[in-house]
Design goal:
The protein is an alpha/beta fold and 320 residues long. It has helices at residues 17-27, 45-56, 62-78, 90-95, 100-118, 133-146, 170-178, 193-203, 218-227, 235-240, 252-257, 276-287, 291-304, 309-317, and strands at 4-10, 35-36, 39-40, 81-89, 121-129, 152-158, 182-187, 207-210, 230-233, 261-264. The protein has an eight-stranded parallel sheet with strand order 1-4-5-6-7-8-9-10. Helix 7 links the parallel strand 6 (152-158) and strand 7 (182-187). The longest helix has 19 residues, at 100-118. It binds adenine and zinc ion (ZN).
């Protein structure tokens, strides 16, 4: 089994329908509008986000989040994964009635339990939500800058890329960068190459979440390769959300051939009927990647991980 790592997964998006149904039972909530026959129900990006938001409201306590993180990370470890970096959203916590401090503390406890049980290493990336606008994202950045946690090592932005411009969020990203957090941002998923270029110019990330639509501009692809910007590619997510009609059209192989550092991640695995193991299998069957190429994906993720040098060295030593 190829050793795996992932650097792009949303913790609320990692909750399986079975876990959400168990939570719903616990809180006496009807989730038949978002889960049918054991699967999440959504049809496009907007309804996906709505479904995701409703599911996240079933995680209401520190222990709920500890359970979610422990469950997800333990599943990843069983798939041969040694490292996971996942996005957290203090906005989702607050909407569910939880303080950001309790949210992060619960997740950290789940990470501790998973590490103790399986050896999996993990870190959190705080995010703001683009569709909440610049003030909301600044609020998320200010919170994490003022309340540092050793396992929160990055800052990013998720949400609806079709709303606002990257430059509108420059201040939020400056706050996070000045606090010592590493930077990634979702771009080039729902919007084309211009969105990636603007994100690079105004938010100065080390990595781009998705970034696949950079392929629409050859000069930008050259820039990504030259500057060593890492793309957090989530092929199953791109197919599920109809960013590409089929794997044959997916640009990962072309980006890789152009010298762009690409990685493999699962984004919101149960929403997209995938898993990290499935993403590696997809790369093998649809992109023709052999074990060595797949291990290169893992190495790229570990090299781009938002961890200290000693942790990175220890992870690299586990790649064989
Ligand atoms: N694929 C995605 N794009 C943007 N925001 C998200 N939040 C959760 N999944 C996302
Ligand atoms: Zn994402």
């Amino acid at each position: 089994m190829v050793v795996k790592a992932e650097i792009h997964c949303h913790i609320e998006g990692a909750a399986s329908p079975a876990l959400v149904e168990a939570q719903a039972k616990k809180y006496g909530v009807d989730v038949s509008a978002i889960i049918r026959d054991g699967s999440y129900v959504w049809s496009d990006f907007t309804s996906f986000l709505r479904c995701y938001d409703v599911a996240s409201m079933l995680f209401r306590t520190e222990e709920d989040y500890a359970l979610l993180a422990e469950t997800y990370l333990s599943e990843l470890a069983a798939q041969g994964t040694i490292y996971s970096e996942f996005f957290i959203s203090t906005d989702h916590a607050v909407n569910a009635g939880l303080t950001p401090a309790a949210y992060i503390s619960g997740l950290a406890e789940g990470m501790r339990r998973a590490r103790e049980g399986t050896g999996i290493e993990s870190r959190m990336i705080a995010t703001g939500l683009r569709h909440e606008g610049p003030e909301g994202v600044e609020r998320a950045a200010r919170y994490i800058a003022a309340n540092p946690h050793p396992l929160v090592t990055g800052f990013g932005m998720a949400g609806d890329e079709r709303m606002h411009e990257p430059r509108d969020f420059a201040k939020a990203f400056d706050i996070a960068r000045d606090a010592g957090l590493a930077i990634t941002v979702h771009a080039g998923e729902l919007v084309g190459a211009e969105s990636v270029r603007e994100a690079l110019d105004h938010l100065v990330p080390a990595r781009i979440g998705h970034g696949v639509r950079a392929i629409e501009d050859p000069a930008l692809v050259e820039r990504l390769a030259a500057e060593g910007i890492v793309l957090e590619v989530c092929p199953g997510s791109n197919i599920a959300l109809s960013v590409y009609p089929s794997y044959a059209e997916h640009p990962l192989p072309r980006l890789r051939a152009a010298g762009v550092k690409v990685t493999l991640s699962s984004d919101d695995p149960p929403f997209f009927h995938t898993s990290l193991a499935q993403e590696y299998e997809t790369a093998r069957t649809h992109f023709g990647m052999d074990d060595a190429a797949l291990l290169e994906m893992t190495r790229n993720s570990v090299e781009a991980a938002f961890v200290d040098d000693a942790t990175r060295a220890a992870l690299l030593a586990r790649l064989g």
